[in-house]
Specification:
Distance between the termini: 46 Å
Shape: globular
Strand order of the largest sheet: 3-2-1-4-5-7-6
Number of domains: 2
CATH class of the largest domain: Alpha Beta
Number of strands: 7
Helix content: 40-55%
Order of helices and strands: HEHEHEHHEHHHHHHHEHEHE
């Protein structure tokens, strides 16, 4: 599919706030681990003429859009089409290090609005939800049709914080015996059977969030990648993470806390045995949120939370 305008792919969130936090890296190398349509990277490259960016995204359509948008800066940009955890094996990053890094997590506006991607619960959409459909892996339909009920219930409960997780898993198990799940209509019908009414948009959003997370392994990938980015940062390098739900934010918050502590021993030990030295410190105690003006302009920014951490000298 041809993307006519890269700007339409995704409106970047909290651009000025991100630039303010990363301004110390304005003459160095910055990792944009979730390149998307390239909005944050464009802001950095256009504002800071000495800056170099390594842009990473697993979505080939996002990479296509970003390359088009960022063509004027191609001499200061490397684009890697892969998951950001795989990008941490890049030899250049490991040898030269990073002065800053940004992860803008979640799903882009374009992905949500593109019917063929199956991220939304509009009528008749395929249950896909893969960030990179060409890369293989299970779809949301595969998960619903093949997974044991107890595992489905766990995913809905833990990743979607859905209180009816067990009932929904049971209803899916009952229905898929007659006809496999293929579209959003199948899942909405199953949830309606549990509720005795049509699910509200917020209720369906929880279930779709859970499916998207498990299909793309989002939380394990985030947990495994954060310390690798930390280790790749040069002294005084800054890591910025924008998350969109409490599960992501909790991982980021706990990681930044542990990296900044001088002791991570289990509670109850009479003396410290870990001998940990703090790696650095968060730049602010509570996450930053978008301004009311930005929320009015881009309502999908409403749930975004930005945290930042600086590595020690």
């Amino acid at each position: 599919m041809e993307v006519e305008k890269a700007e339409a792919f995704h409106e970047p969130v909290m651009v000025e706030e991100v630039l303010e936090v990363l301004k110390g890296a304005n003459g160095g190398t910055i990792l944009d681990g979730t390149l998307g349509g390239g909005g944050h990277t464009e802001a950095m490259l256009s504002r800071w003429p000495e800056c170099r960016v390594i842009g990473v995204d697993r979505d080939p359509e996002a990479v296509q859009a970003a390359r088009k948008r960022l063509q004027p800066f191609s001499d200061r940009l490397r684009v890697l089409e892969m998951r950001f955890d795989h990008a941490m094996d890049d030899a250049q990053m490991n040898q030269e290090g990073l002065d800053g890094a940004l992860l803008d997590l979640g799903v882009s506006s374009w992905q949500l609005d593109a019917d063929h991607r199956g991220f939304a619960f509009r009528r008749g959409l395929p249950l896909d939800m893969r960030m990179n459909a060409a890369g293989g892996g299970i779809t949301a339909a595969d998960f619903l049709n093949r997974t044991e009920e107890h595992e489905m219930a766990r995913v809905f409960r833990e990743y979607g914080e859905e209180p009816r997780a067990r009932g929904l898993a049971r209803e899916i198990g009952r229905r898929r015996g007659g006809r496999p799940f293929r579209t959003s209509d199948d899942l909405v019908a199953a949830f309606s059977g549990v509720l005795g009414r049509t699910p509200r948009p917020r209720e369906m959003a929880r279930v779709f969030q859970a499916l998207r997370i498990v299909v793309n392994q989002e939380l394990p990938v985030l947990s495994q990648t954060l310390p690798r980015i930390r280790d790749a940062l040069r002294p005084q390098g800054v890591l910025v993470v924008i998350s969109y739900h409490s599960l992501e934010d909790r991982i980021v918050k706990n990681s930044f806390r542990d990296w900044s502590s001088d002791c991570v021993c289990p509670p109850g030990l009479p003396v410290c045995v870990c001998d940990q030295v703090p790696h650095g410190a968060p730049l602010f105690r509570k996450p930053q949120r978008p301004s009311e003006e930005e929320i009015q302009r881009n309502p999908r920014s409403r749930s975004s939370l930005m945290r930042a951490w600086r590595k020690a000298a």
